[in-house]
Amino acid sequence: MAMALLLAAADGTGQTIAPDFASAASTCHADGERLRAVASFFELAPDQRVAEFEPGFALTPCLADALRGRGKLLLAVDGGDRVAQVVRRVAVQKTLKKDPARYADVPLLLLKPGKPVPPEQAASLDRVVIAGGGDALLDDPGRARGLLRSLADLAKPAALLGIVDVPETDRARVEKLAALLREAGWEPAGEMKTDAAGLLLLKYRKR
C-alpha cells in the first residue's frame, strides 16, 4: 500500500485516511463520520479489493464511491439455496438496481461453504468489512463458520477483516465473534476501538 495514499487526510484522531475515502465521506452525509473511522482503523485504501459481507447499505454507498476507479467493491452474500438465503440475495440485488449509477460495477460474490473458491478469485481480497455488529454471523454460527472460511480463502495473506457497530457493553458478543473468526482462520489484529457513537470496531487478520 503506497504511503502517499494514506497521508492525505486526517480523521480527527491523529490517524490518516486515503483521499478518496475523505471525499466519499463528505458526500455520504450521516455515514461520513463512520466511514472515516472505518477507513482509518481498517487501513482502507482506494486501490484495494474490498468485500462487504451481507451488506446492510449503511456503509455500502460510501465504500462504492471511494473504491470506484482504482479499487473494487464486492458484496459477499450467502450462496445457499435455503429460502431465507435466496430472499436475502434478491433483496440485495433489488437495492443495487435502485442506484445503477453507483453500483453498476459492484458484483455479488456468492459464498458457498465447503466448496473450493474459483481459482481466479482465490487470495484476491485486501479487506473484508462486516457491518451490523456481526448479526449475520451470529444468526447461524455453524453456517457462518463456513462462510468466514470461504472469505479467508478469498483473502490475500495477512488481509484484514473488520467488524463495525458492535455494542461496547456486549462483551459476550465480542467473545462469540472472536471464537467464530479464530475457528475460521482469522486472528485478532491489535486492540479494538470505540467510535464516536460508542460502538466497537473489531479488527482481525488472516492467519
Number of domains: 1
CATH class bucket:
Alpha Beta
Which spans of ≥5 residues are poorly predicted at pLDDT below 50? 1-15
According to CATH, the fold-level topology is Rossmann fold
Report the end-to-end length measured between terminal Cα atoms: 19 Å
Biggest beta sheet summary: 8 strands, mixed
Write a compact overview of the structure shown.
The chain has 207 residues and is an alpha/beta fold.
Verbal overview:
The protein has 207 residues and is α/β, with parallel strands linked by helices. It has a single domain (3-206), classed as Vaccinia Virus protein VP39 (Rossmann fold, 3-Layer(aba) Sandwich), CATH 3.40.50. Helix content is 39%, strand content 25%. It is built from nine helices and ten strands. The chain has helices spanning 3-6, 19-27, 32-41, 60-67, 83-97, 100-103, 135-138, 141-154, 171-183; strands at 9-10, 16-17, 49-53, 72-78, 108-111, 125-130, 155-167, 186-188, 193-194, 199-206. The strands form two sheets. Strands 3, 4, 5, 6, 7, 8, 9 and 10 form an eight-stranded mixed sheet that branches. Helix 2 (19-27) runs antiparallel to helix 3 (32-41) and helix 2 crosses helix 4. The longest helix is centred in the middle third of the chain and has 15 residues, at 83-97. The chain is globular and about 35 Å long. The model is unreliable at 1-15 (pLDDT under 50).
